[in-house]
């Protein structure tokens, strides 16, 4: 990785790379994970893979450690972080009480891509919760994430490991691109299988409220809690403070405007070209042959029958689109069912930020 350059600002860090790609998750964990865990326990910020996206982790009990996350990402301080735990028993140390529905959801989906909002206690740094009385907790499934948290021996606050406003990283290279020189290190290990962030569920009210759709689908939540116990949507009027504060921020602002096309892609492209614009198209593989000839850049999203593959590659494809430097990018839409709800949520955010 890059050495410190002359004239570089004092806050430049030499970012280490620990490659554990070859670890199968079964053999005892390699020394690289131990070193990275030690870094976290000493108060440094370290990026690591999870089954959703790469996270940027630091000791959730330490203000100074957590501040490094906000500084490296350029993240607004009023946007709280998710605390990651390695063992279920750890969450007793973070919460004042665990609502029944949270226990039920944890039974069904932990370890996995589900974040539960529960009442917090005083062990959690105020910086993590941005002054809220609740804390977001998740037990990830990825063996590297779990081994790292266990080696660190502390609850690990971790947002996605991207610069604020960029797509979440699904590969170690994305983290390097965004955060090299700003964090202590990156643990490189295997792909992030889901590719989209965890589902965030508020468990502090009478019904479970999905604040952010993700890897665990609404249908899966309903199957466990019953239809009547899952609220239709956050349903907050615009002027009220958003429940998941992160929802109010621009998430991914592509350098070329992204437009979602429900009707005819041909028409949309023709019109833009009539205005003299260069055009990128993001569409499913099945439409490649037909649409490619119209576009300056074509990005194949994956097969229309494999929506989970499309989800897994979506952020990588949005990063590609960002580099294409066309005047406008048109993207197909998907049914908001199953993982499609999360895919469309991220695409709509990207489109509204352009
Ligand atoms: O899959 C994921 O969840 C990844 C990996 C690394 O675990 N993490 C992630 O973190 O996506 P982040 O910080 O990018 O998104 C966390 C979201 C934000 O929208 C934040 O506002 C919300 O969760 N959140 C955190 N704590 C909250 C709380 N106490 N109440 C409501 N929303 C909260
Ligand atoms: Mg994020």
UniProtKB/TrEMBL annotation:
L-threonine binds at residues 52, 84, 138, 158, 198. SUPFAM superfamilies: YrdC/RibB. Pfam families: Sua5_C, Sua5_yciO_yrdC. It comes from the Bacteria. ATP binds at residues 75, 79, 134, 160, 168, 212, 252. InterPro entries: DHBP_synth_RibB-like_a/b_dom, Sua5-like_dom, Sua5/YwlC_C, Sua5_C, T(6)A37_SUA5, TC-AMP_synthase_SUA5. Keywords: ATP-binding, Cytoplasm, Nucleotide-binding, Nucleotidyltransferase, Transferase, tRNA processing. GO terms for biological process: regulation of translational fidelity; tRNA processing. This is Threonylcarbamoyl-AMP synthase.
